[in-house]
């Protein structure tokens, strides 16, 4: 095996070793989780791995946008029309039988892709149960999952990584190091030679102990460690697995364990001289090839105490990744049913909306299954025509779409009175926090402040953080409380947003007091009556609204106003930016 070299010792050499291991027994090992950004380093690894495969070995690529039918297979419409009987089409995994499937941007792979790939790795076959046909096709493949995740919130699904033996993080590797390192060459060992490699009980027990301490609650790591250790030994020309081969297997299968076990460089005081010759013999290092159980024990202790950087923790970040992926954190607005545009989510026999176009391909698939029966019926009726393709009304299929609308949070802030500065400060902080999240959720934020005689739109719907900060830089405060004017302006803006096809959410920060009526004259009774009238409009138009009571002591009039608006009420006597942002984000995530 090559000796580590370069700025990042061993990572690129281990990656090259992983490519050779994968080329020897890829389907048996499942595949490799390759974390690397798109670039020459990753391309160099893929080119080297492909050069190790036979020339006729299939090499297919899966993208996140590839439909499920293309992966599994189904009814071949063209062949069915030509032969007059259902013909099964091979999917991508079946066509890659005996080769490699590269999943690009695997951190964004949907549940269907993960489920299909996981089933193929478990059984080695692809099962087709769709379009009225049932078939089982061989699909013994090696999966290369390319992980381009930037931070710890992105990663490959654990259901997929648990079924792939190898994991390599090429992020720290520079192109200079990859270019100047000579890739190992030479023939690869046969499966018979690998099966002849022996593993001692001590090494096997140590590998199992390391697998148990890895934090992956599965039996697969222990099995993969033993298999990879045998392959590494066979590549090294050894007949038995030695300590160095076991260490290489741990680096390839459980890279976080080896990262945790590497001691930090520090100056140590010279050891005290031994008191006698027996102690001196005990302190001598074991010979190469002899298992050092004390060193393995230190390795296990290091695993338990390790506090790894997130970039190195490839395997343990996946559960968090899947938790974030299954949450509503990336949801943008409401999901429209029977939408006329958006993401296709299937087909239906009934039009999802008036004027929906027929899905020609799905219609042909539906009709192809009945051609033999219809041909017999035509023959019995004496009106058979060769080559005729019958399509009935029941065969028509229509595409269904799912469209997620954008959300717009309209913050309506009371900027009047002696506490205006505090309230505006919290509103500014909440708006900036919401804007920071809008990049992920594709939401918009708007700000309306009411003070003096009327309300004012300070920030139109936007997701620009720079524009928001400029608009919020100098906001005046003090004066009367035109609550009804602020509510009316927010309602008009919400209706405008709704007409654009977006989902509005009004967030009213107030203490419930009002002393300026809609026409601008002062009067507490008229002002409160106008506020109740506008609240009735909120209830009639069903505008989603959240009322946040920012009074130092929650007031009954504020909760009564929320009930009149059919809005949700939250009392935050000590309102702060994070509290307001968390409340608003929770509602926007629900859609």
Automatic annotation (TrEMBL):
<keyword id="KW-0436">Ligase</keyword>
<comment type="similarity">
    <text>Belongs to the Mg-chelatase subunits D/I family.</text>
</comment>
<dbReference type="InterPro" id="IPR036465">
    <property type="entry name" value="vWFA_dom_sf"/>
</dbReference>
<dbReference type="Pfam" id="PF17863">
    <property type="entry name" value="AAA_lid_2"/>
</dbReference>
<feature type="region of interest" description="Disordered">
    <location>
        <begin position="261"/>
        <end position="288"/>
    </location>
</feature>
<feature type="domain" description="VWFA">
    <location>
        <begin position="408"/>
        <end position="587"/>
    </location>
</feature>
<dbReference type="Pfam" id="PF13519">
    <property type="entry name" value="VWA_2"/>
</dbReference>
<dbReference type="InterPro" id="IPR027417">
    <property type="entry name" value="P-loop_NTPase"/>
</dbReference>
<protein>
    <submittedName>
        <fullName>Magnesium chelatase subunit D</fullName>
        <ecNumber>6.6.1.1</ecNumber>
    </submittedName>
</protein>
<dbReference type="InterPro" id="IPR041628">
    <property type="entry name" value="ChlI/MoxR_AAA_lid"/>
</dbReference>
<dbReference type="GO" id="GO:0016851">
    <property type="term" value="F:magnesium chelatase activity"/>
</dbReference>
<dbReference type="InterPro" id="IPR041702">
    <property type="entry name" value="BchD/ChlD_VWA"/>
</dbReference>
<feature type="compositionally biased region" description="Acidic residues">
    <location>
        <begin position="262"/>
        <end position="288"/>
    </location>
</feature>
<dbReference type="InterPro" id="IPR002035">
    <property type="entry name" value="VWF_A"/>
</dbReference>
């Amino acid at each position: 095996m090559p000796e580590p070299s370069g700025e990042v010792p061993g990572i690129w050499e281990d990656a090259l070793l992983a490519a050779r291991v994968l080329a020897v027994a890829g389907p048996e090992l499942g595949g490799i989780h390759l974390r690397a950004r798109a670039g020459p380093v990753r391309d160099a690894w893929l080119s080297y791995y492909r050069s190790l495969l036979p020339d006729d070995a299939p090499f297919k690529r899966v993208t996140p946008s590839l439909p499920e039918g293309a992966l599994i297979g189904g009814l071949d419409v063209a062949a069915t029309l030509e032969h007059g009987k259902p013909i099964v089409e091979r999917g991508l995994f079946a066509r890659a039988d005996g080769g490699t499937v590269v999943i690009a941007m695997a951190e964004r792979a949907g549940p269907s892709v993960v489920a299909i790939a996981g089933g193929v790795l478990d059984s080695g076959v692809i099962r087709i149960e769709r379009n009225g046909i049932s078939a089982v096709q061989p699909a013994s493949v090696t999966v290369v999952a390319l992980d381009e995740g930037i931070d710890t919130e992105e990663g490959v699904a654990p259901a997929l990584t648990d079924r792939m033996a190898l994991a390599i993080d090429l992020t720290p590797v520079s192109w200079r190091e990859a270019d100047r390192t000579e890739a190992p060459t030479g023939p690869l060992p046969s499966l018979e030679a690998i099966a002849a490699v022996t593993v001692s009980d001590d090494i096997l027990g140590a590998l199992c102990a390391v697998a148990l301490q890895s934090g992956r609650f599965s039996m697969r790591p222990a099995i993969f460690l033993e298999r990879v250790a045998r392959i590494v030994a066979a590549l090294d020309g050894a007949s038995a697995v030695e300590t160095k081969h076991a260490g290489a297997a741990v680096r390839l299968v459980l890279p976080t364990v080896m990262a945790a076990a590497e001691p930090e460089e520090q100056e140590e005081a010279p050891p005290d001289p031994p008191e006698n010759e027996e102690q001196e013999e005990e302190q001598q290092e074991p010979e190469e090839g002899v298992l050092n159980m004390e060193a393995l024990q230190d390795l296990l202790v290091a695993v338990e105490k390790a506090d790894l950087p997130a970039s190195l923790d490839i395997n343990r970040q996946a559960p968090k990744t899947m938790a974030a992926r299954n949450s509503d954190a990336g949801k943008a607005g409401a999901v429209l049913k029977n939408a006329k545009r958006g993401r296709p989510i299937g087909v239906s026999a009934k039009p999802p909306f008036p004027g929906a176009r027929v899905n020609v391909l799905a219609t042909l698939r539906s009709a192809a299954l009945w051609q033999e029966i219809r041909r017999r019926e035509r023959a019995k009726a004496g009106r058979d025509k060769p080559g005729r393709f019958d399509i009935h009304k029941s065969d028509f299929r229509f595409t269904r779409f799912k469209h997620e609308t954008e959300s717009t949070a309209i913050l309506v802030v009371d900027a009047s009175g002696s506490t205006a500065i505090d309230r505006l400060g919290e509103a500014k902080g909440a708006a900036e926090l919401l804007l920071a999240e809008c990049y992920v959720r594709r939401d918009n934020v708007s700000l309306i402040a009411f003070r003096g005689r009327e309300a004012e739109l300070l920030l139109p719907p936007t997701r620009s953080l720079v524009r928001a900060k400029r608009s919020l830089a100098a906001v005046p405060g003090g004066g009367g409380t035109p609550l009804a004017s602020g509510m009316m302006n927010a309602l008009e803006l919400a209706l405008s947003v709704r007409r654009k096809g977006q989902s509005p959410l009004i967030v009213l920060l107030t203490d419930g007091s009002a002393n300026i009526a809609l026409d601008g004259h002062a009067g507490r009774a008229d002002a409160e009556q106008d506020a109740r009238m506008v609240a009735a409009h909120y209830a009639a138009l069903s505008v989603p609204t959240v009322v946040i009571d920012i009074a130092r002591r929650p007031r009954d009039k504020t909760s009564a106003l929320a009930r009149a608006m059919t809005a949700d009420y939250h009392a935050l006597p000590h309102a702060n930016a994070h509290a307001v942002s968390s409340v608003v984000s929770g509602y926007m995530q629900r859609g």
